[in-house]
């Protein structure tokens, strides 16, 4: 697996970016496809056949689940946890946060290890294919999975802990670790594009902690910019990622463009950003 930029030819990379942007704007974005296109940015070996293999594996796992188990949401949660968590060993440990592969879907399916959000993608996609009423839940600090009716009878499971069922007290404790209080809207189904943005944020955080992997942070922010809704601040983040990669001229130009965008609402910030652009241009001398 590469820790650098997009794999393959420039033409293939551009085609992959176009496909990502188109899928992100689809009426019903395919979360698995978007995750695999993210993974393909990091891994040059992940071609169309490799993506198909992940889809086939998810289908095969779903085929091992019982159809319409008695016991409602709890039965579904227990059956999925029994298969993926206990029998197959999908789960996570703190060390997984130090691996880029923990944020790449094909690697998570292969290794059966990953971050909570990617493990939750596996959980929801396998369960959905088997007919379960399932959805992702983007709790602050820990992405988990819900089974049942999010506004009625439901149960939460934590794939990072092998599918452990969560009580309301457990969920409250999880979000408290992120410094917030549990509120009902947090338990509603996560939007696929919000999930993708959170995955890309995780990858950017991983790269920021490792300056030698600047290109990873760059492609992660560039994919985030392809999402139909994103904060203007991402332009500034892209500029900084370009500078981190030694692409000073491009980084300065991006800073100047960001300053132009924010000037109407925050002239002081725009002036500060222009000063930073000048500093970056000076690095070329």
UniProtKB/TrEMBL annotation:
Q: Which organism is it from?
A: Streptomyces catenulae
Q: What is this protein called?
A: Transglutaminase-like domain-containing protein
InterPro entries cross-referenced by the UniProt entry: SirB1_N
Instruction: Identify the PANTHER family for this entry.
Output: F-BOX ONLY PROTEIN 21, SI:DKEY-261L7.2
Matching entries from Pfam families are given as: TPR_9, Transglut_core2
Protein SirB1 N-terminal domain span: 54-201
Family indicated by similarity: Belongs to the UPF0162 family.
